[in-house]
Amino acid sequence: MLTAQNKSQPRPPAFDDIVKPVVPHMQALGDFLDNQVEQFETDIRDLVRYSLQNQGKRLRPLLVFFGGWREGEVNPDLVRAAAVVELVHLATLIHDDILDDATLRHNSDTVSARYGSTAAVLVGDALFSQALVLAAEFPTVDVCRAVSLSTRRVCAGEIRQTFERGNAAFSLEEYFRVIDLKTAELFSVSSRLGASLAGYDEAFSEAAGKFSRHLGVAYQIFDDLADYLGDEEKIGKTLGTDLASGKFTLPMLVLFQRLPRGEQKLFLQRVRRGELNPSQLAGVMKDYAVIAEVSSSFERELAKADDVLAPFANLEPVPRLLNLSKFVLSQFERLAVSS
Amino acid sequence: MLTAQNKSQPRPPAFDDIVKPVVPHMQALGDFLDNQVEQFETDIRDLVRYSLQNQGKRLRPLLVFFGGWREGEVNPDLVRAAAVVELVHLATLIHDDILDDATLRHNSDTVSARYGSTAAVLVGDALFSQALVLAAEFPTVDVCRAVSLSTRRVCAGEIRQTFERGNAAFSLEEYFRVIDLKTAELFSVSSRLGASLAGYDEAFSEAAGKFSRHLGVAYQIFDDLADYLGDEEKIGKTLGTDLASGKFTLPMLVLFQRLPRGEQKLFLQRVRRGELNPSQLAGVMKDYAVIAEVSSSFERELAKADDVLAPFANLEPVPRLLNLSKFVLSQFERLAVSS
């Protein structure tokens, strides 16, 4: 369990420490993305500029840079690849925020809240197109293929999740399939591309991809738990949207399984009628030890992630990637332990 | 004027005659697209299958095949390129139908009417991704680059149009810029790719692209007029959506310019209040000779299209492409003359 681990392990690195070595890379990415605005047609530059202001943690670019890490080098190919995955991610976020009716993202109005859903659908499409324009600037079709395949899978995951809204009988197996597609896929392609563009061999590139796939699953579990336990102001986005839109994620699926059979139906009715707010639900989750089970799933994925890299311990990217998994762990712990 | 031309010119070829030589190619495309369904994740195949059932005229694939025409040959590269542009087109149609609240397309429920707008946003994204997956199967990045650039421009055109909704002061110049981006761009890339993939030289590929750009503008003018004058049952899609959504297209822009200054304000109010249905508007348009001016714009574009091909009259694709412009002309005439 998490609290036991906390005692025996050293303090995890803070996010600022993790990103310190990669500051010049992230700065280069920021400049690169700023310059992208001028690549778009004049008609839509303001909208694109607003869409690119999103100041997330840029985890996918971090995976590109760390997957292809070589000390002291800002490789322009990695900067471009990082821009590609970040643009794809921003496009999917913009479309997600329309579908979830979310109004807040990183403490700013979402694109759909600010410009309307019509413009938001289309600017998402435009950002995705531009990601592929950049992918086509590499000498071979590899980046185009990898990114478009991944994006198709991300969409498939999102659609599957949409179809299952309101379905409390959604199995855990199906839940893990959905998050593998919708989140882990793009994490995976990010570090795989980073490694291969930096000249690491196929075996390590594949391993970097697998590591990030597990990390992505773990991260999504964290994100799904945060939707119930998080602090909207700290996290900077609208929370409780999963419940509001009938998305049953891991915490709710586990809770539902643990409820006495006779109580499931009534509970589901109360949820559907919106009679339980997220903080009440968090209370019920504590009563049924839901967080402990969610924590186990989370830890299992992170352990798998770290194991994949064990044979490559001597390569430069490995300690960097492992730092990211430590960071995700520390985020999760802060959330789960404080609740 | 159109009626005068009708008397002095031979009967234009029927659509069936035009597509006769390309039947094996279109059949190969149909099979290719059918097989695409299995390429998508199992979770979304039914939705993809439904989305691909759209039985339009497949004008963009025709432009690919005719742009790269060589008698007696079904070139698999052209079939793949045709699938790429058709998938991009279907993706944009699906997104458009959400934004326009359209429920009918080719006499079937739109994807958004059938599966909801959430699934429609995402399946549009998935189709676009798959288009790029196919584009990445070519040995060089050329197809990826051309298609993603075009798609970005299509989106820019759509967004611009969205921002100008309800703006009756939208200039004709701006209107032509929007339709160049949102329609002519993909027409252009279709025949340009067809020509270059079939081994025609740069000069002809460029010309084929320019021809189709003008053809695309002409086609959009036809489509915009049909939204007012068309017969919903014959055309097989929801009409009158431009007016309903406040999109001012060429017929309305011309009409508005021709109204006496004192009447413009009242007229606009009546339009905004929905007091004029499309057939009443068609009557007003006739009173102000709007259709004659729209016809002139249409004819001017078609003439430019045909002129671009004049220096290449000895090449196999040219009579095929010219047949398409004759067909678009005949469609326009049927609409404008019958009204």
UniProtKB/TrEMBL annotation, chains A, B:
One of its GO terms (molecular function) is metal ion binding. InterPro entries: Isoprenoid_synthase_dom_sf, Polyprenyl_synt, Polyprenyl_synt_CS. Belongs to the FPP/GGPP synthase family. One of its GO terms (biological process) is isoprenoid biosynthetic process. Gene3D superfamilies: Farnesyl Diphosphate Synthase (1.10.600.10). Its cofactor is Mg(2+). This is Polyprenyl synthetase family protein. CDD domains: Trans_IPPS_HT (cd00685).
